[in-house]
């Protein structure tokens, strides 16, 4: 759900902001929300530690990476309580960067962020404190760069940042271990992930479909905001992705525990978006044309979507 977090935040905030402000500002607020929606996954920076000493095998490395990530992933940075505090830190820093007298607000942001890091570190240990420090620092960097590059009002910026941070954990309810939504409170809202289907393969396919829907939601908002037509941006060659249905006979049924062969191969189908087209001229000489970046990107996304759907149908039929 890495991409889905940002896509959904961008789409929702842009669409809602468009009702109150002009197009450019709405898109900027959507981008702010998308940036903050990715920040909670900063805890994944600890995961590469698991690669040390792992076998030089693709599946062994992937397994070591994900198993190590669970040590801190979806913990402190995925708490709604912590996210609210970090959103406050970001808003204070943003206000301080834009203010003629930044010191009071910047000091308040540092105090609030430093207190959060110290509290989490005291409660969970050095690793938890370090991850929280990265979380706070990432939010401060995004706030600072947004203040330097835009003139967004404080209120809308704070709202977009908060939405991005607070929406992120809900996208993780369908895969892996449920987030610690109310840390540090001793309250467990969800002990198990939300099951979309009893069959583990159908569950994975449904969870992937939700992410693709989030991405397409963002795409439609972006295309609409730019005054483009989606049909003009997708090449007909996307139809070849239907052939991915044959992989149902070639790879093991994907599950959350064994998703790598399916995910890597279905994403690879997106390569059809960048493949050059062959044109036969009147003199029977062949000419290659390379699609522009926009067409390549949208065609790749459409190809992955078609391949995903084709596999799902094939799995249900077979």
Topology (elements, then pairings):
Layout: H1 2-17, H2 23-38, H3 58-69, H4 80-98, H5 103-124, H6 126-149, H7 154-167, H8 200-226, H9 260-268, E1 277-280, E2 286-289, H10 293-317
Antiparallel strand pairs: 1-2
Summarize this structure briefly.
The chain folds into two domains: 2-172, no CATH class; 226-317, no CATH class. It has ten helices and two strands, in the order H-H-H-H-H-H-H-H-H-E-E-H.
Written account of the structure:
- 58% of the residues lie in helices and 3% in strands.
- The chain folds into two domains: 2-172, no CATH class; 226-317, no CATH class.
- The two termini are 27 Å apart.
- Strands 1-2 form a two-stranded antiparallel sheet.
- It contains ten helices and two strands, in the order αααααααααββα.
Look at the structure and give the mean pLDDT.
85
Query: In one word, what is the shape?
Result: globular
Query: How many strands, which pairing sense, and closed or not: the largest β-sheet?
Result: 2 strands, antiparallel
Radius of gyration: 22 Å
List how many beta strands DSSP finds.
2
**What count of structural domains?**
2
Q: Give the helices and strands as they follow along the chain.
A: HHHHHHHHHEEH
What structural class do helix, strand and pairing data support?
mainly alpha
Keywords:
318 residues; mainly alpha; two-stranded antiparallel ribbon; 10 helices; globular
């Amino acid at each position: 759900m890495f991409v889905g977090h940002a896509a959904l935040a961008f789409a929702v905030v842009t669409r809602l902001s468009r009702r109150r402000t002009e197009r450019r500002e709405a898109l900027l607020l959507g981008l702010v929300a998308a940036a903050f929606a990715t920040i909670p996954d900063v805890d994944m920076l600890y995961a590469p530690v698991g690669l040390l000493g792992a076998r030089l095998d693709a599946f062994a490395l992937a397994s070591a990476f994900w198993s190590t990530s669970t040590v801190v992933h979806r913990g402190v940075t995925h708490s709604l309580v912590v996210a609210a505090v970090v959103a406050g830190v970001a808003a204070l820093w943003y206000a301080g960067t834009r203010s003629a007298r930044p010191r009071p607000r910047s000091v308040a942001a540092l105090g609030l962020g430093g207190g959060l890091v110290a509290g989490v570190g005291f409660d969970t240990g050095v690793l938890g404190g370090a991850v929280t420090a990265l979380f706070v620092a990432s939010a401060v960097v995004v706030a600072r760069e947004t203040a330097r590059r835009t003139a967004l009002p404080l209120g809308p910026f704070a709202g977009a940042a908060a939405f991005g941070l607070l929406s992120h954990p809900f996208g993780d309810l369908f895969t892996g271990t449920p987030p610690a939504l109310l840390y540090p409170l001793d309250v467990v809202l969800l002990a198990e992930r939300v099951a979309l289907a009893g069959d583990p393969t159908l569950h994975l396919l449904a969870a992937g479909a939700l992410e693709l829907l989030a991405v397409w939601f963002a795409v439609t908002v972006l295309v609409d905001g730019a005054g483009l037509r989606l049909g003009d941006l997708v090449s007909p060659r996307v139809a070849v992705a239907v052939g991915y249905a044959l992989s149902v006979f070639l790879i093991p049924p994907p599950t959350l525990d064994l998703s790598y062969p399916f995910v890597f191969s279905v994403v690879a189908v997106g390569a059809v978006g960048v493949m050059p087209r062959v044109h036969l001229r009147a003199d029977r000489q062949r000419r290659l044309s390379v699609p522009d970046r926009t067409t390549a990107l949208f065609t790749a996304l459409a190809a992955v979507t078609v391949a995903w759907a084709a596999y799902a149908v094939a799995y249900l039929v077979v």
